[in-house]
Specification:
Mean pLDDT: 87
Shape: elongated
Order of helices and strands: HHHHHHHHH
Number of helices: 9
Length: 210
C-alpha cells in the first residue's frame, strides 16, 4: 500500500519516467531490428560467416551492463548525450536474439519449398520475400520479443549515466534505502516487460505459418 500511495502521489513523475523508458527501449529495439534481421539473413545465406558474427554478438552479451555504459562514456559525440549512450548499449545487447533467431528461421525453411520456388522461376530476392521471410517470421518475432524483454530490464541501468527511465527510482531508492521508491521503478518496469512479451507473443502466434 505504501508503494501504491507513493506512485499515486508522484504519478506525473512515474508517467514521465515510464515514457522515457519506453523511448529508450523502443528506439534501441528498432535499431537492433534494422541491423539484426539483415545480418541474420546474410549469415543464413553465407554459412562461413555465421560463427564469427554470432560469436561477436555473444561476446557483447558477456560485458556487464554498467561496464558497457562506462566504456561508451568517453566516446566522442556519444558521450555528450547520455541517452545516445543508453540507446547504443541497449541496441548492442538486443542484437544477439534477433540475429540468432533470424538465422535459425531462415535456415529452418524446408529445402523442398525452396527448390519448388526456384522451379517456378523465382529470383533470390523473390524467394527471400515470398518464401523465406513469411515462413520464418514467427521465429524472427520470437527473437524480437526476447530482445524487447532484455532491453526493458537493462534500460533501468541507463539511469546510472543520467539517461532517465524507471531506473531513476531504483537508484534513488537504493541511495535513500527506501523500498517504496525502488519498487516504484521496479514494478512498472516488470509490467512493461510482461506486456511486451504478451503483445509480441500474440503477434508471433498470429503470423505463425499454418
Amino acid at each position: 500500500m505504501n508503494v501504491l500511495r507513493f506512485v499515486l502521489q508522484n504519478h506525473d513523475q512515474v508517467l514521465q519516467l515510464t515514457a522515457e523508458h519506453l523511448w529508450l527501449v523502443g528506439l534501441s529495439t528498432l535499431f537492433a531490428t534494422l541491423v539484426g534481421i539483415p545480418m541474420g539473413i546474410w549469415i543464413a545465406h553465407r554459412p562461413a560467416y555465421n560463427k564469427p558474427v554470432l560469436a561477436g554478438a555473444n561476446i557483447i552479451q558477456t560485458v556487464p551492463s554498467l561496464a558497457m555504459f562506462g566504456f561508451l562514456l568517453p566516446v566522442p559525440w556519444l558521450g555528450e548525450r547520455s541517452e545516445r549512450i543508453a540507446i547504443l548499449a541497449l541496441t548492442l545487447y538486443a542484437l544477439l536474439p534477433i540475429i540468432r533467431n533470424t538465422y535459425t528461421g531462415i535456415r529452418g525453411v524446408d529445402p523442398a519449398v525452396m527448390e519448388a520456388g526456384r522451379g517456378m522461376g523465382l529470383t533470390a530476392w523473390q524467394l527471400l520475400m515470398q518464401v523465406e521471410l513469411p515462413l520464418a517470421v514467427s521465429v524472427i518475432l520470437s527473437g524480437v520479443r526476447t530482445a524487447i524483454v532484455i532491453s526493458v530490464g537493462l534500460a533501468t541501468i541507463a539511469a546510472a549515466v543520467g539517461a532517465g527511465g524507471l531506473g531513476e527510482f531504483i537508484f534513488r531508492g537504493l541511495a535513500m534505502v527506501d523500498n517504496r521508491v525502488i519498487l516504484a521503478g521496479a514494478i512498472p518496469a516488470a509490467l512493461l516487460a510482461l506486456l511486451a512479451d504478451f503483445g509480441v507473443g500474440l503477434l508471433e502466434r498470429r503470423l505463425q505459418p499454418r
